[in-house]
Amino acid sequence: MKITTEKLDNIDLEIVLINDNDLKSKNLVDKVLLDKLSFKAEQDELCFLAESSKVYVGYSDDIASSIASSIRFLDGKEFVKNIKLTTNLSDEESIYKITNGAILGFYKFDKYKSKRTNKHIKNLYISSPSQKNFNQTIKKATTIANSTNFTRDIVNMTPDDCYPKVLAKIAGNLAKENNLECNILKQKDIEKENMNALLAVARASRHDPRVIQLSHKPKDAKHRVLVIGKGLTYDSGGLSLKPSDFMTTMKSDKSGACAVLGILKSVSELNLNVEVHGFIGAVENMIGGDSYKPDDVLTAKNGKTIEVKNTDAEGRLVLADVLDFAQQEISEFDYIIDLATLTGACVVGVGNYTTGIMGHNDELKNRMKECAKNSGEFATPLDFNRFLSKTLKNETADICNISNTRYGGALTAGLFLSEFIKDANKDKWLHLDIAGPAFVEHIWGVNPHGASGAGVRMVVEFIENL
Ligand code: BES
Ligand code: ZN
Ligand code: ZN
């Protein structure tokens, strides 16, 4: 779908975006009819006037979601190819949200359908009172929305189609297309790096692990950011096997890694003047005769010993080594941000739609919360405390991979990761637990059933604002 503020000929249908205030206006052409149909212009409310080929859509605080709802509604209608979107909003931010909502709402994942759906909508013409062309705004919103869709596509792939080697291939192709530096570590290279915690998780899988590095390195960059992604292409739980109801959707345990790919796609296409290094731990957590076991003691890359008490707390083991590797490879940086579908506890705590923001630096956590909000994502800071840190202590080894309390699981997982952040970098670190929003089994706002691309928009916003 092409989005433009230039007039289109042959309009097939008009979308009219209004709020309850607009609805009160006497100038509203279809006021009588809309009143008769009890249209209230509530958030995402749709009213299709077939005779005049118009769809009214209401909004209160989420323009992008309203546009996504109307685009989804129209996508099934074959005659709708060219759409005029009428709005009395004329500021850059609104045009940005309209564009974002249209592209994110237009997304459909049908790779596994025997009959692919035909996409009918070709052009969306935004008609606003402003005379500006908004080309730059539309271009930026399109780039970020397309990167989010790129992330969604990979997350939605089945574990049989997307295993560590495939994830590395996707990263390699992205590097080629977008002029990124790319370094892939295979089994032997990972062994040489002593990433024993990661290797233990990977051991029972027929697919070897990969550690992937992708770098966007503009000349004279003013800042340097590391983004680290959990890439469990499948999480069966290992020997601490997940109950079957909890195992379904675990193809989405690679969402952090896929978000890292989407972030690198965005920052390179937007040509941002920030050096960004992405690191991914791509691993499959399976069962077998050579599984790692509860009771094992692993020596992580940074030398710390970890007693395994639950093989389903595998993401933190993978990230422990990748975080240390990233800090070894790029020793000087301003920020290190990890994204991971790390805990069910985070979903219990803040719900399906919200990312948990953790770290030791309150200013940084609040900044990320603002970035999430401005970019259309939900995220909230969760605060560590010293009493929770003690719950990871262990008699046998330096630490345990699960805490000794059943409460506060998102925070104790975050505190486990903190053990692998060097002291000098503690204040530069953010941990984003995207277990809730990364994969939701229904449509919500601009998001489809399945992968949402959580983390891409908020982290790109963060990097852009540096
Ligand atoms: N990948 C899961 C976390 C998860 C749960 C992601 C639900 C998305 C939706 C993670 O590896 C896991 O299994 N965590 C355990 C930790 C526990 C054993 C301490 C969990 O959350 O139950
Ligand atoms: Zn797990
Ligand atoms: Zn997991």
Low-confidence stretches: none
As a percent range, the share of strand residues is 15-25%
Calculate the terminal CA-CA distance, rounded to whole Å: 31 Å
Radius of gyration: 23 Å
- Count of DSSP E strands? 19
Q: Tell me roughly what share of residues is in helical segments.
A: 25-40%
Largest sheet: 8 strands, mixed
- Class from secondary-structure proportions: alpha/beta
| Mean pLDDT across residues | 97
Shape estimate: elongated
Query: Which small-molecule species are bound to the chains here?
Result: ligand BES, zinc ion
How would you summarize the topology of this molecule?
Elements: E1 2-4, E2 13-18, H1 20-24, H2 31-36, E3 46-49, E4 54-58, H3 63-75, E5 82-86, H4 92-106, E6 123-127, H5 135-155, H6 164-178, E7 181-185, H7 187-192, H8 196-202, E8 210-216, E9 223-235, H9 244-247, H10 255-269, E10 274-285, E11 297-299, E12 305-307, H11 315-329, E13 335-340, H12 344-350, E14 354-359, H13 362-375, E15 378-381, H14 386-389, E16 399-400, H15 409-418, E17 429-433, E18 439-440, E19 450-451, H16 456-464
Parallel strand pairs: 1-6, 2-4, 2-5, 5-6, 9-10, 9-13, 12-16, 13-17, 14-15
Antiparallel strand pairs: 3-4, 7-8, 8-10, 11-12, 14-17, 18-19
What does this 3D model show about the protein?
The protein has 16 helices and 19 strands. The protein has 466 residues and is an alpha/beta fold. The strands form four sheets. It has an eight-stranded mixed β-sheet, with helices on both faces. A six-stranded mixed β-sheet has the order 1-6-5-2-4-3. It is elongated. The relative contact order is 0.12. The mean pLDDT is 97. Bound molecules: ligand BES and zinc ion (ZN) (2 copies). One zinc ion (ZN) binds at residues 235, 237, 312, 314. Residues 232, 235, 253, 314-315 line the site of one zinc ion.
